[in-house]
Amino acid sequence: MRIRYSFSFAPHENVVLPTGEHVPLYRVGQTISGVARIVAIEQIKINGISVSVGYRIKGTCNPEEAFAPVGGLQLQYLEPNVPIDIPFTYVLPPFGPISYKGVLMTIDWMVRVVVDIPWAFDDEGFAIFLVGSA
């Protein structure tokens, strides 16, 4: 792992999972905002960084995902131990989909950061949040 990702969300409700993890909870139609932080462990040549918000459906159904770009930077290098903060804001759709975790399918909402690395697989980090009905 050559890049570390962390995410902070603006004040909001939280849900505490049985594991003790606090997960942000939003309602359909609300605005999600925060900051994505990227820190490289070593110098890395890149084409840029993109931040998007969206959902991923997986399970026995056909996999589907929909993400909207909410920020990014055009850089040539990530320098070691130099944090890069990218703010993001996104208005959740008023009609869902809402988060769901079942036997046959799962709908996960997330903030996703993709670092475009030339001639290599892109590096990706994400933070899950929950979307409930109004």
Comma- or semicolon-separated keywords:
single chain; 134 residues; mainly beta; Immunoglobulin-like; seven-stranded mixed β-sheet; three-stranded antiparallel β-sheet; 12 strands; 0% helix
Explain this structure to me?
The protein is mostly beta strands. It has one domain (about 5-130): Immunoglobulin-like (Sandwich), CATH 2.60.40. Helices cover about 0% and strands about 65% of the residues. It contains no helices and twelve strands. Strands 2, 3, 6, 7, 10, 11 and 12 form a seven-stranded mixed sheet that branches. Strands 1-4-9 form a three-stranded antiparallel sheet, with no helix packed on it. A two-stranded antiparallel ribbon has the order 5-8. A hairpin with a 6-residue loop joins β11 and β12. The protein is globular and about 45 Å long. It starts with a strand and ends with a strand. The mean pLDDT is about 95.
Q: Topology, pairings included?
A:
Layout lengths: L2 E7 L3 E4 L5 E6 L3 E10 L3 E2 L2 E12 L4 E10 L3 E2 L5 E8 L8 E2 L3 E12 L6 E10 L2
Parallel strand pairs: 3-12
Antiparallel strand pairs: 1-4, 2-3, 4-9, 5-8, 6-7, 6-11, 10-11, 11-12
Concise structural overview:
The protein has 134 residues and is an all-beta fold. It contains no helices and twelve strands.
